[in-house]
């Protein structure tokens, strides 16, 4: 093999398959992998529709995709303990490993993290790629390639719980039942939450939340989710509210449904940079507002949860397309939110 197929985003709405050379291992700690399954993320859709996310702008053709499982083909001489044939999930951001943030363990806050499919770093909608071995995590034998490609979104759910400090006995509300909400819901149970409450406006997604273990589901189009949470918690509110929908309305709901001294974690991405928050309420009820940016040290726990059957990822995978049909796959994510959760492509 000398060439491979890769899907390049040339500009807004312009995604094309091209034939490019297969990459070669360039550093002793790298591995060459064959990509087996890649999920389409909301961020891929933002780049496809707007050509940018915040300050990250698509200036030259870029390969999107950062949620992947792959088979190891070749390993460099310093590629840790990996060997050809290993099945791995790749963590898509590689920090500098040297700054104070990296050394303290919060490497997602490193100032220089080349991240797959964030300009100018290419992503995974292609057949082969090279990557540092210490950001490849071996998958359990029982996991399918599709489940392996769900480790990245599950890692976001894990990070949300790590940031919230979810612990045994907690009651946790998850606002928004998209791919991240539904992984966060299950991660919370994995961290010991005793009761989870899920809110959304789509019955299809609420049914999935119920199937995946939510004790209470609230259709926010029909009932007030804050009142429903208070009713389900003897008027106290939840210990933790994980906001994954990325709207002003759901952020305000999360603030109103958290108990005194609880934690609100902002996971969902917003289209507006600023809006008003109930600042006196934050002060007087002394709850914490915490952000989540990607993840750190979350792939290990995510894979452990999958290996121990503490999470179910298969029900989230609603569509799979061959790489050649990537445009059809993007169409499903953009236009069929009431019927799809995670759409993947297989090179
Ligand atoms: Zn993602
Ligand atoms: Zn760093």
In short:
By secondary structure, the protein is an alpha/beta fold. The protein has helices at 42-50, 100-104, 145-148, 151-164, 179-190, 203-211, 225-232, 248-257, 279-284, 299-307, 326-335; strands at 3-11, 14-21, 30-39, 52-53, 56-57, 62-63, 67-75, 87-90, 128-132, 136-138, 171-175, 195-200, 216-219, 238-243, 258-266, 288-291, 317-322, 342-346. Bound molecules: zinc ion (2 copies).
Structure description:
- The chain is α/β, with parallel strands linked by helices.
- The protein has eleven helices and 18 strands.
- The protein starts with a strand and ends with a strand.
- The model has no long low-confidence stretch (mean pLDDT 96).
Helix and strand topology:
Layout: E1 3-11, E2 14-21, E3 30-39, H1 42-50, E4 52-53, E5 56-57, E6 62-63, E7 67-75, E8 87-90, H2 100-104, E9 128-132, E10 136-138, H3 145-148, H4 151-164, E11 171-175, H5 179-190, E12 195-200, H6 203-211, E13 216-219, H7 225-232, E14 238-243, H8 248-257, E15 258-266, H9 279-284, E16 288-291, H10 299-307, E17 317-322, H11 326-335, E18 342-346
Parallel strand pairs: 11-12, 11-14, 12-13, 14-15, 15-16, 17-18
Antiparallel strand pairs: 1-2, 1-6, 3-7, 3-9, 3-18, 4-5, 7-8, 8-10
Helix pairs in contact: 4-5, 4-10, 7-8
The structure holds zinc ion (ZN) (2 copies).
What brief labels describe this structure?
single chain; seven-stranded mixed sheet; six-stranded parallel sheet; alpha/beta; 347 residues; 11 helices
- The mean pLDDT is 96
Largest sheet: 7 strands, mixed
β-strand amount: 25-35%
Radius of gyration in whole Å, from Cα? 20 Å
